[in-house]
Amino acid sequence: MTNILLIALLTVNVALLTFVGVYTLRFRSLFRSFVTSPDEKTPSPFAELVSNISDVFSRSVLAGAKTTFMGLQSGLVRGEKAVGADIAEDIISAKNPLLGAALDSFPSLRKTLRRNPKLIDIVAQRLLDKSTPAPAGSNHSDQFSFKLKV
User: In a 10 Å sphere around its CB, with 0-12 CB exposed, 13-18 middle and 19+ buried, how is residue 46 labelled?
Assistant: First the structure.
């Protein structure tokens, strides 16, 4: 009885070893075909896989770096514009109190000038033109004259 059990156990072990050996050879051939290139001009599937993974990884790293860099640049540009607008606003208030009062009275004008400080000269010129006293005897009738053609 023990001889029959030993023979059965030995047969099962041989079958298992044969099964493992056959599948090991198949796995090796499959792995070799995946890793080695078919010819000199075409890369192996493994090389293509590694190339694709590295492309995706490098794109994500570059996108993150670009986002960070552009965010820093945007913050610096906004800060420079804000400082320039603050300086221009203080200079205007110091040199021309009328224009400083106009900026306090017209918040939308202040906002526009903060965005584009180059418009300060135009605003100053228009406010000074409007604030100059009219000559004596003038009733400003030419400001509101409408000429209707029939």
Answer: middle
Q: What are the sequence ranges of the domains in the chain?
A: 15-35+45-130
Q: pLDDT tens for residues 87-112?
A: 877 877 787 777 777 778 888 887 88
- CA torsion 34→38→39→40, rounded to 10°? -10
Do 88 and 120 meet the contact criterion of CB atoms below 8 Å apart? yes
Q: Tell me if 92 sits within 8 A of 120, measured CB to CB.
A: yes
pTM above 0.85, yes or no: no
Find, among 115, 112, 136, 133, the residue nearest to 123 by Cα.
Answer: 112
Q: Give me the pLDDT at residue 120, please.
A: 75
**pLDDT per residue as tens digits for the range 39-70:** 888 888 888 999 999 999 999 999 988 888 88
If one counts every other C-beta atom within 10 angstroms of the C-beta of residue 99, the result is 21
**How many CB atoms are closer than 10 A to CB 113?**
22
